[in-house]
Amino acid sequence: MCHFEAKLVMLPKHGDPRGNLSFAENFKQIPFEIRRVYWVYDVPGGENRGGHAYKENEEFIIALSGSFDVILDDGVEKKRFSLNRSYYGLYVPKGVWREIDNFSTNSVALILSSTLYDEEDYIRDYSDYKIWLQHER
Ligand code: TYD
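That is the input. Now the predicted structure with thymidine-5'-diphosphate docked in place:
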């Protein structure tokens, strides 16, 4: 199974002298129904977040402010995506190991998720992830 359906999506952007506006809608820019929204902010310099995979949850990550890198790993291939514009989002399919690092000062990561929070959906250990992949493939 190839998990690298991950993709960078350019969101609509309404440029205006009063300020810009971008948006995203279910099944349009976002290829799933949004069930949960969370955001990560006030990340101290040098910290990283994530370091896990979800068995079912899909997500869409937007750098609302500032910048950071999302590293995706499907067990075979590793890709780094730099998010530094509020009008780009990264679609992350289920079953992909993901980490976020390189946070700029005052950056805000908005994460749109396809499932409600469920700790059982997480794989938090990389060697468990590799074992899980063998059963998935
Ligand atoms: P976690 O997903 O481990 O953060 P990250 O992937 O950024 O490293 O979540 C950190 C904590 O927050 C963890 O104890 C679970 C809790 N949490 C919720 O209660 N609800 C949520 O929707 C999320 C994403 C996390």
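The radius of gyration is 15 Å.
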